[in-house]
């Protein structure tokens, strides 16, 4: 199949990576109603079509936290993203750099921050709060040492949501021989992936947490390990603790309530991301697009507000921006593209987003990404 859309890349990835890996990225929690709402509620946003406006020159560029972006898109952190292709986070970061947008490396990535920074350019770094404060401090110090342009503190995972697909695929809840055999069978059914990633892509580990988990990633009980080691006792004082140690732009990701948005700003956040973790945590939570307006009203433009969830096209990017988001984070699409065609797939998805954004801007009479009041 010749991919023409992000949906096409999802289908290609499903056919090329092991089931446990595809379902980990693709799935949500419980009945996945919030995952579906992210997509449906965003698609329900109507844009005003305008005519007889000179749209011969369209500028998609923005400046965010002092960084120039070719379009208002950031590749979001995706745990285990590097398993979708050989040293996958490096490949995705290269594609993002070439497209002029930031790549955000997950705490639970396969490739460590130093590897990505040395191969491409320093990425944004996403930080989870684990119980070992020394390990968190070490990751912050490493992000400083590698000159990461921004730190993205994800705050909506004190414990993993109930993700049924991960149990069925034995990514979690099956630490013994039976679970290993189940995953091994899934790998054997994808021989190209097994050779490219399983053999040629070693070491397979959680590179940023090597000092905490050892040389091997705990894939036999991945989400169980997260549940045991992530800091369920973290409160707003932990954000202040991170703020005191991190000198650069600090972005707090996982905000859905206006009160939490205000508290994040009060505790030193330079920006926030309105996000429900892609529907992977609290099923039944409000969609990101529905949460966005009240949060924007509460903050009153005091800090940039990004959004995350449900973006499947450049048209969706414009929908978020038209509502007032400064930029969007995109997660699943780049992981699907990486699993389907590696770096070239991620580059193509970014090109699709850019082309679709330009088309949507032209059809709504926008020549630049300014507030709606400044457009014809």
Characterise this structure.
The chain is α/β, with parallel strands linked by helices and 376 residues long. The protein is built from 16 helices and ten strands. The strands form two sheets. It has an eight-stranded parallel sheet. Helix 1 (6-16) runs antiparallel to helix 16 (332-363) and helix 4 runs parallel beside helix 16. The longest helix is centred in the C-terminal third of the chain and has 32 residues, at 332-363. The radius of gyration is 20 Å and the shape is globular.
List keywords for this structure.
alpha/beta, eight-stranded parallel beta sheet, two-stranded antiparallel sheet, 16 helices, disordered C terminus
Summarize it:
The chain is α/β, with parallel strands linked by helices and 376 residues long. It is built from 16 helices and ten strands.
Count of extended strands: 10
Order of helices and strands: HHHEEEHEHEHEHHHHHHEHEHEHEH
Q: Pairing-aware structural class of the strands and helices?
A: alpha/beta
Shape: globular
How would the blueprint of this fold be written?
Elements: H1 6-16, H2 19-26, H3 33-43, E1 62-64, E2 67-69, E3 73-75, H4 88-99, E4 104-105, H5 113-119, E5 124-127, H6 133-145, E6 151-154, H7 164-168, H8 177-188, H9 191-199, H10 210-213, H11 222-229, H12 236-245, E7 250-255, H13 258-266, E8 271-274, H14 288-299, E9 305-308, H15 314-323, E10 327-330, H16 332-363
Parallel strand pairs: 3-10, 4-5, 5-6, 6-7, 7-8, 8-9, 9-10
Antiparallel strand pairs: 1-2
């Amino acid at each position: 199949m010749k991919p023409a859309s992000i949906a096409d890349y999802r289908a290609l990835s499903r056919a090329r990576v092991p089931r446990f890996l595809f379902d980990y990225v693709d799935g949500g929690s419980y009945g996945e109603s919030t995952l579906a709402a992210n997509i449906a509620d965003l698609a329900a946003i109507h844009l005003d079509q305008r005519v007889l406006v000179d749209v011969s020159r369209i500028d998609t560029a923005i400046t965010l936290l002092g960084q120039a972006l070719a379009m208002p898109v950031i590749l979001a952190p995706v745990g285990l993203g590097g398993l979708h292709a050989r040293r996958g986070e490096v490949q995705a970061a290269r594609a993002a750099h070439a497209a002029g947008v930031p790549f955000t490396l997950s705490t639970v990535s396969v490739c460590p921050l130093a590897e990505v920074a040395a191969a491409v350019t320093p990425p944004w770094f996403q930080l989870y709060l684990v119980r070992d404060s020394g390990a968190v401090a070490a990751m912050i110090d490493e992000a400083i040492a590698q000159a990461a342009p921004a730190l993205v503190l994800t705050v909506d995972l004190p414990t993993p949501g109930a993700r049924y697909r991960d149990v069925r695929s034995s990514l979690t809840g099956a630490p013994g021989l039976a679970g290993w055999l189940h995953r091994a069978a899934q790998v054997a059914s994808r021989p190209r992936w097994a050779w490219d990633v399983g053999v040629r892509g070693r070491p397979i580990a959680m590179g940023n947490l090597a000092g905490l988990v050892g040389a091997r990633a705990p894939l036999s009980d991945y989400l169980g390990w997260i549940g045991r080691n992530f800091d369920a006792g973290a409160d707003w004082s932990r954000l202040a603790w991170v703020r005191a140690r991190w000198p650069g732009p600090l972005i707090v990701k996982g905000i859905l309530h206006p009160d939490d948005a205000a508290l994040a700003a009060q505790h030193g956040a330079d920006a926030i991301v309105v996000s429900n973790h892609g529907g992977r945590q609290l099923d039944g939570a409000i969609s990101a697009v529905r949460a966005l307006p009240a949060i924007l009203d509460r903050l009153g433009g005091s800090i940039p507000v990004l959004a995350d969830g449900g973006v499947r096209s450049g048209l969706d990017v414009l929908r978020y921006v038209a509502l007032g988001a400064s930029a969007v984070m995109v997660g699943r699409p780049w992981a699907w593209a990486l699993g389907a065609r590696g770096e070239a797939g991620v580059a193509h998805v970014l090109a699709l987003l850019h082309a679709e954004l330009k088309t949507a801007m032209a059809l709504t009479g926008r020549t630049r990404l300014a507030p709606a009041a400044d457009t014809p």
